[in-house]
Design a protein that fits this description.
The structure is a homodimer of 479-residue chains. Chain A is of the alpha+beta class and 479 residues long. The first copy, chain A, has 14 helices and 23 strands. In chain A, helix 2 packs across helix 6.
Chain lengths: 479, 479
């Protein structure tokens, strides 16, 4: 179909159908395209640019704490994957297997990496010698493949892009500190770059990473009240070191096993941003990761001097080190406004003949819709201040929503009733038994999201079995 | 074996065994490690850091000319790969095939991408609508898999890291201009970042990319006289557009096929740097891509004030925006000097008690071995000037070697004799027949590297068949 002029895009409203609203944004903000390969996704330029901004910030944070990037092979021989029993049980059922190389059948099949603990251990097994070389603080940016049954863009996909940090340390205490440091790194990143508050805690044994001694998580609340696990950090003790025979000569000249961690965050964070800040007009991006932070729209651009005035504003904003674009295309203003709202651009600067007469421009905020008439000499100051305000407002709104939708309960039936009314985070005490965790799922439809670091005493007993409570757990409905 | 103190590393000399010298550097400069997967490589932190510097520079160049990054799926269904006949013939024999997803046999096997023209075409087939959306200037950073029979680190590996640019344009002329622009981009990058002169030209039909209408190449000469293809840029016409049904509504409202290009450069460039600048003491890195541009060595560091003096120099060099490191480990000076020579660090700054008395430091160049006594107040000036000199000297030396080892011939037996004496680049005229190209391989052991853009008239006839010559070709022995 010939389609020269673009149409203003409509999306399903959030309240009508949250899942369809989400998919509409993914496609209409041009973040992703479905690939010909079922369950796989294509990151289009706009979606990739958001990911690129995220990776640049995270990579800088990792490097500041001494981490180094490496690249490991994409394929893992089955025998190598099998050396650690729990890991292979967790990942083999969803691995994609390469069985042919060219026209030859391989002697041993190989998995496309679902995660790379095995490769890092194998590498360390023949490169680590002395305690002097520890810690080894490695990170890898790559994609991984997991053969999921049902998929959704960013949230669950057969391929996704991520970073996987892998470190080994001389002592257990150092490895535990690394695990905690990296979880905090993710939480800080979510707060400062994504304007997204998270709940920090430890996963129950049932929910932890296959093969880990402990898994720590950050959990965020989406606008529909559901929980999104947004980053995890694992402590392995010396379990993998022993399984893969990674050893070093210690300070006392004896052969020892190093202690290990891994931690990962992925393109899932783009899904988190959509469902934390988006609205019925489309995406709403926090300024730190927005590919375009400010869009300049020349109004009545055919009039003399308007385009030049717009370009001049663009140059001044660019000089602040911001990502700015002027849309001088022949689309209508209405189309342009809708387009950059759909794409979640934090600020829109308009300038037309009337503004020029008054030596001003108009700045519109994506988050609140507020408009400001700004004298041109105050442009830089106002743009910078507004970007900070947008970030802070997004964060505060999300924080308020998280707090207003987190409730404490002492009875299972109250959890059930609350969830039936509106999906939320439910805090209860817990005895620590997996049986009660399973019962919560059956009785109230919730899974444990984490055992928060910040514990509260909500009572003395487990609401399921009535036995003495050990910890407070946050329950929810997970993506 | 307990090994607390590191030993000074010895490598094979270049003149004794060039191939072994190359492998020694790859391993002893800690660029790569062999993986448990035959034919695959691991990029260790130092090797990856070089690649990261290369990618940052190239990515900046691509973005300046309007290219946008995207991410395509790692798997390509066989039916999709088969739509363009020449491409599948070229790549299917060396594809790695996924046949199982989890425990299920796939209905159709999928190749791990050997190159992604097919995926880009498939994506464009359902996203491109109008001439207004053209050109689409895309790039992808990823790894690709090709099941090579024999492998060498960086040069030929079953997996390698690269970027693949893919663009579509409204007209053939625009696509051709893009092909040329990107080839020039690679050549400029090699000159300005890698200090490596290259020969620009067009590949013969025999040597061109499977499915391309024309392939352009940059060819560099390694220290053993062999040729390394260091980047290629392809023009496809509308061949793939037609095969994959990529269409758009043109300015005249008719349905048209866009014209397409692709272009790639890879971790092979690290191999190029090793064999262009390296010597018997190890790697020699051009400053622009060196992970450490300046290393500071405190001499007699146990003496009072020495470490602080070294850190002060480090801070001053860091303030210039340079990548600098102080080695304050307890290794000997001899070990440190050898280690950073092996790693190709362009400048070494030494400071000890005697230098402090004289208010000076010593700067040693990796490329020439020259040492300079530098008054401390001239540190910034001298470091910056020397880094430029190192780059220029590396480039000029490589250029001189290229020129001194490129010869013009009018007889096949002269080419053969020259090659038997020392591998070089041989320029001859050529009639354009593939039969003569094949004969050159059989008679003189050389393959055509390219038809240089800068043509010379070396005679009227083809040295093989004696028929009228059409073009001048450069022949060589390729990696």
């Amino acid at each position: 179909m010939a389609k020269n002029k673009k149409q203003v895009k409509a999306i399903t409203s959030m309240s009508e159908d949250f899942a369809q609203w989400y998919t509409d944004i993914c496609l209409k903000a041009e973040l992703v395209d479905y690939a010909s390969v079922k369950g796989f996704m294509i990151l289009r330029p706009y979606g990739y640019a958001i990911w690129e901004n995220m990776t640049n910030i995270l990579d800088g944070m990792f490097k500041k704490t001494g981490h180094q990037n490496v690249a490991m092979p994409v394929l893992i021989p089955e025998s190598l994957l099998k050396k650690e029993g729990e890991l292979v049980e967790g990942f083999a059922p969803e691995a994609a297997w390469v069985t042919m190389g060219g026209s030859d059948k391989l002697e041993e099949r190989m998995a496309i990496r679902p995660t790379s603990e095995t490769m890092f251990c194998d590498h360390w097994a023949h490169t680590l010698h002395s305690w002097r070389e520890l810690p080894m603080l490695y990170n890898q940016w790559c994609s991984v493949v997991r053969w999921e049954k049902s998929t959704r863009p960013f949230l669950r996909s057969r391929e996704f892009w991520w970073q996987e940090g892998h470190t080994i340390h001389e002592t257990a205490a150092e490895a535990e500190a690394e695990t905690e440091q990296q979880l905090n790194c993710y939480a800080d990143f979510c707060r400062d770059a994504l304007a997204m508050p998270v709940l920090k805690g430890r996963k129950t044994d049932k929910e932890k990473f296959a093969g880990a001694e402990a898994t720590y998580t950050i959990e965020a609340m989406m606008k529909d009240g559901k929980a999104l696990q947004s980053g995890t950090s694992h402590y392995f003790g010396d379990k993998f070191s022993r399984a893969y025979d990674v050893t070093f000569t210690g300070r006392d000249n004896t052969l020892q096993y190093p202690y290990q961690t891994s931690w990962g965050a992925s393109t899932r964070l783009i899904g988190a941003v959509i469902m934390t800040h988006g609205d019925d007009n489309g995406l709403v991006l926090p300024p730190a990761v927005a590919p375009i932070q400010v869009v300049v729209i020349p109004v009545a651009q055919h009039k003399e001097g308007v385009l030049d005035a717009a370009y001049a504003l663009e140059q001044r904003i660019k000089a602040l080190g911001l990502r700015v674009k002027t849309d001088d295309s022949d689309q209508s203003n209405g189309w342009k406004y809708a387009e950059y709202e759909m794409k979640g651009v934090p600020l829109r600067v308009e300038i037309g003949p009337k503004d020029m007469e008054k030596n001003q421009c108009v700045i519109a905020r994506r988050d609140t819709g507020e408009k400001y008439f700004v004298p041109l000499e105050q442009l830089e100051e106002k743009v910078q201040a507004l970007l900070v305000e947008v970030h802070d407002n997004l964060y505060e709104s999300a924080k308020q929503r998280l707090e207003e939708n987190t409730f404490a309960f002492t009875k299972v039936e109250d959890v059930k009733a609350a969830m039936e009314k509106h999906t939320c985070f439910a805090k209860t005490m817990w005895c620590g038994d997996e049986a009660c965790e399973i019962a919560m799922k059956e009785l109230a439809g919730v899974s444990s999201r984490c055992i928060p670091f910040e514990q509260e005493n909500l009572g003395e007993v487990c609401p399921v079995c009535g036995k003495p409570a050990k910890k407070m757990v946050v329950w929810g409905v997970a993506y």
